[in-house]
Amino acid sequence: MAVEIGGIGHSVARKEDARFIRGRGNYVDDVKLPGMVYLDIVRSPYAHARILKIDTSKALAIPGVLAVITGKDLVPLKLEWMPTLMGDKQMVLPTDTVMYQAQEVAAVVATERYIAADGVAAVEVEYEPLPVVVDPIKALLPDAPVIREDRAQKNNHIWHWETGDRAGTDKAFAAADVVVKQDIYIPRIVVASIETCGMVAKFDKVEGHLTVWMTTQAPHAIRTVIALVAGHLGLSEQKIRVISPDIGGGFGGKVPVYPGYVLAIGASVLTGLPVKWIEDRSENIQADSFARDYHITAELASKKDGTMKALRVKTIADHGAFDAAANPSKFPAGLFGVITGSYPFEKAFVEVDGVYTNKPPGGIAYRCSFRVTEAAFAIERLVDILALELKRDPAELRMQNFIPPQAFPYKTPLGWEYDSGNYGAALKLAMDKIGYAQLRKEQAEKRSRGELMGIGISSFTEIVGAGPSKHFDILGIKMFDSAEIRVHPTGKALVRLGVKSQGQGHETTFAQIVAEELGLPVGDIKVEEGDTDTAPYGLGTYASRSTPVAGAATAMAARKIREKGRLIAAHLLEASPDDIEWKDYKYQVKGVPAKSKTMAEVAFAAYTNHPQGMEAGLEAVDYYDPPNLTFPFGSYICVVDIDKGTGEIKVRRFYAVDDCGTIINPMIVEGQIHGGLTMGLAPALYEEINYDKDGNIQGGTLMDYLMPTSMETPSWETGKTTTPSPHHPIGAKGVGESATVGAPAAIANAVVDALAHLGVRHIDIPITPWKVQKILREKGVAE
Amino acid sequence: MIPAAFEYEAPTELAEAIDRLARSGGEAKVLAGGQSLIPLMKFRLAQPARIIDLNRISGLAYVRENGDLRIGALTRESDLEESAVIRDRYAIVADTAAVIADPIVRNLATVGGNVAHADPANDHPATLLALRASVVARGPRGERVIPIDDFFVDTFTTSLAPDEIVTEIRIPRAQAQSGGAYIKLERKVGDFAIVGVAAHLQLDGKGSVATAGIGLTNVGPTAIRARHAEEALRGRAPDDRAIAAAAEAAAAESQPVADLRGPAEYKRDVVRVLTTRALRRAVARAKGGK
Amino acid sequence: MRVQLTINGASREADVEPRLLLVHLIRENLLLTGTHIGCDTTSCGACTVLLDGRPVKSCTVFAVQASGRTVSTVEGLEQNGVLHAVQEGFTKEHGLQCGFCTPGMMMTSVALLERNAAPTELQIRQAISGNLCRCTGYVNIVKAIQHASATMREAKAEKEPATAGRA
């Protein structure tokens, strides 16, 4: 029975694949409307410059160019600035000054894509370069040029945020036997989903109605933002329809509102025509939201025997020219406070300062639940440094310190309540599966022969599922999520969700939750997302929140249906509702299995033969406000070999044990982990966005932004433990980002481990061959 | 990214192509595989008024060994990689073809284009330098055979006249007791070389080096022939000491600059490391190994 | 300029600017939107199609160059309602997530299996190294291609004795 239902725990084949493997997906650039025109963007070659003049005449003279929009054109519409989620504001188009390279300067609207590009090339802009600040530490110096002259505060400091017990932590450090300290820079990266961002905007002048097809992970929030930003122009929320069609990868990069979206809408309002704007790859890498860029100084205090006591962290966060991170409103540094990780520190104190620089805005867009990757990387690196300091095996030191399983729910010194965990079991499984003891022997033998091999561990704790609405909101909108289920008379169901898949397989997994709860075959359940006209309001898919929040909403909505169904079943079975139980995916009269009704039978009755006085129909909606976050965790072990001549690092093996609580679809979960690991490998060894001192991006294409291919990526090995979340209706925790959060530290720890006997304690990521080879030469062991 | 407009011609005869190129007044670009040119055009870093597409001209794609080895300029890298004669007798060329860009790009990218583009990061030039190849060019004044040492002038600049088209690469016939290898270090598959080293050796009857050829990729304004390194090997048994000396010399001759592929010092050292490895492989192959 | 080509078995014509990229001809003029665009630099392979049977990156070919030639895209893989073994493999082995790189990845896979019916894992990884995927980590793509390889060989083995019988 269970197999036919395809409920929780089954590797049901993905429903969405049917269109994707036939090339019948419907991505934004596939949307083609009659009369549609194209928008392309003029971008700044300078990182900081005054705009002296924009000459649009040559562009406007090109046949087919319909309009060129500049910042000045947006002033009467009050659209030259837009608010950010972090209480800052961001330029849509500059009226005076550009603040980072590749910033939008003007938009060209033309009848054809190619003509729009010609128009962009023909717009002439005169700039007067201004002093540039790219280093956030220098940006805080008193004599640094002020980037944001529009603010009352005439310096580059955005905010200070702190959490924990400063005095108590200082005291614990003063009393500690051992203190290790490390500066860790986690560089700027971009998600570079294979589909870039884009929009088709269609404004109907007669109806005053706007429809947008848009690469967004959060369609409802976007609709509200449009209403808030452009409400004064008559765009009220009931006249805005946001459609998020198939999305070619999001990873956080499709949460923010980019100026291009606003310009496409503006251009449609202006011309009365449908307008398409699609980024090219350079724009996507150079101007879209970034992630990381955290300058961390982390210290760990412990006893001589390795018992970890206290953690102290100071961070400078580079936010670029506008604070446009997509964090929950009250968390300017996201959930960085999860940095105490898997260990029961008695005291901890964390402070972060946000800083403006002449770089693009952003802050979290890289498969990371609000700065958790930075936190996991710092603590897992620090634990390895402590192991080196104490000459202890890093696995053993972790085992000694883990928060024990019986301590859950566990309250951290920084205020989080971890729901459940069994960290030792996950690490032990990873060690057994990869053959840890044997690998250590191999390493010792290789070392004696002068070969370099390293083993790295990362035992991370994630924090996802934002969130309890008392703490989490975006622009004041509480971070609940929603599901609506309609069971049709013939026992088929339609499920609509406030979240939006970008490849995670929602059409399958959410159907499986409903299948499990209602006993309907998964094939009879259709899942729809991404249309604000039809889906219930939700905050969207990012930060691994779909399963923890919308998954819970789906189960709760299904349970509401099941409860109503029980009354109908009682009516059909001529029994008291109290005597009806849900068993084996059916309603049964207690103790009389022969007297039963299926959900399909009950559904038919809900429309044809429901009890007198009961409303007809069988549907429910649930807006789920989680009582707490969920805390997935895992232990990863990585083995690397290092080429002593070139410094190249080869990831030979990587075993990942993840625990994300109850697993809905094992196949999809494993796929999420494979992908997440690859997005952990990438910044560990390859990806980085760099700027020169003038703020010029170094390598803003996929030729130089080094996304791993099939050849760099190892054959990931995975395993699991299952520790359900006690507060989630089905015990699920979310898994989309765990691997990206956990993997970089495992890889960095492995590389450092390979070189530890030479006295190496830390190397900043990405660990390039030349960084390694420089060390080898300095230590006299290079080939 | 959208290229600027241009006029397009696809002659079916080489003579016609040369004629059109000659009459274009320097405004035309020749299109072979297009895998370097088209991206440049999309970024509008190249905006030729006219494109002369060679792909409709037959008879420019071949690999033949009669006397010397002749490779038609329009031979696709993937065909070169799969050619039996290249695999069996010119392993260094197979090594090179197999690491150019990625397998899909290699289905269009041509040998002639790789050489004529004169990008110091392209891989064939170093190998051709090591092999003492020559480039055959055809222009209004007829055919010229240009020794490879005279071909690369500067970054993206060759000794081709503006109205000449590369038609063929000639490589001296593989001899007994000769062998070579090309080794490329790249940041990831598909990337240009951080450093590439081509090494080719001809051993004499006593197993000493009769002639050596060493070419370096992406450590100078053009591909570089490491003459001192070659010198260090000539007449000597290719043992570890001789190889080490040659590798040191090659490193000294390289002219790397710091960029996203690493600091100059690193690249110089990698020249040494890869020269060592390429020479060892060349020796093994000259002695009949793979 | 007039371009005439055979795409997925059908002859099509279009009047285009010389600068029109093949991928735009396919997507905009011929309305076959299964072929995607992911970069500008021949790096990602989302636009991979078969040109006379060989995978090429259609964002780096001018449409005029394809005139008189044969192009195959993802839309041509399914024949008479029967999925290609590669399509089957990708869905059975969960070789796709967002689906954006998938058409290009599958076209490369089809070409690989036509040349090499039983590739090793390394050969598969080499063959797809010009196609970037941001979702899957490639493990299941490799499995998908192995799956397709096995079913194609089985199908061939079933066919061959019959052929031998006729001869």
Task: Describe the protein.
With 783 residues, chain A is of the alpha+beta class. Chain A is 28% helix and 25% strand. A seven-stranded mixed β-sheet of chain A has the order 3-7-1-14-11-12-13, sandwiched between helices. Chain B is 34% helix and 26% strand. In chain B, the strands form four sheets. Chain B has a five-stranded antiparallel β-sheet with strand order 4-5-10-6-7. With 167 residues, chain C is α+β, with helices and mostly antiparallel strands. Chain C is built from five helices and five strands, in the order E-E-H-E-E-E-H-H-H-H. Chain C has a five-stranded mixed β-sheet, with helices on both faces. The longest helix of chain C is centred in the C-terminal third of the chain and has 28 residues. The termini of chain C are far apart. At the A-C interface, helix 2 and helix 18 of A face helix 1, helix 2, helix 3, helix 4 and helix 5 of C.
Topology at a glance:
The complex is a heterotrimer of chains A (783), B (290) and C (167).
Chain A: H1 2-5, H2 17-20, E1 37-43, E2 49-55, H3 57-60, E3 65-70, H4 71-74, E4 81-83, E5 89-91, E6 97-98, E7 104-110, H5 113-122, E8 124-129, H6 136-139, E9 157-164, H7 166-174, E10 178-189, E11 198-204, E12 209-214, H8 219-230, E13 240-243, H9 259-271, E14 275-278, H10 281-287, E15 291-302, E16 308-318, E17 347-355, H11 372-390, H12 394-401, E18 410-411, E19 417-418, H13 423-434, H14 436-448, E20 452-461, E21 473-474, E22 477-478, E23 481-487, E24 493-497, H15 506-518, E25 525-529, H16 546-573, E26 580-583, E27 586-589, E28 592-597, H17 599-608, E29 619-624, E30 633-642, E31 649-659, H18 666-686, E32 690-691, E33 697-698, E34 717-720, H19 738-755, H20 769-778
Parallel strand pairs in A: 1-14, 12-13, 16-17, 24-25, 31-34
Antiparallel strand pairs in A: 1-7, 2-6, 2-8, 3-7, 4-5, 9-17, 10-15, 11-12, 11-14, 15-16, 18-19, 20-30, 21-22, 23-24, 23-29, 26-27, 27-28, 30-31, 32-33
Helix pairs in contact in A: 11-19, 15-16, 16-17, 18-19
Chain B: E1 7-9, H1 14-23, E2 28-31, H2 37-42, E3 50-53, E4 63-66, E5 68-72, H3 77-82, H4 84-89, H5 91-98, H6 103-106, H7 111-116, H8 124-131, E6 134-139, E7 142-147, E8 152-154, E9 157-158, E10 165-171, E11 178-186, E12 193-203, E13 209-217, E14 224-225, H9 227-233, H10 240-253, H11 264-286
Parallel strand pairs in B: 1-3, 2-3
Antiparallel strand pairs in B: 4-5, 5-10, 6-7, 6-10, 8-9, 11-12, 12-13, 13-14
Helix pairs in contact in B: 9-10, 10-11
Chain C: E1 2-7, E2 10-15, H1 22-29, E3 48-51, E4 54-57, E5 70-72, H2 85-92, H3 102-115, H4 121-127, H5 139-166
Parallel strand pairs in C: 1-5
Antiparallel strand pairs in C: 1-2, 3-4, 3-5
Helix pairs in contact in C: 2-5
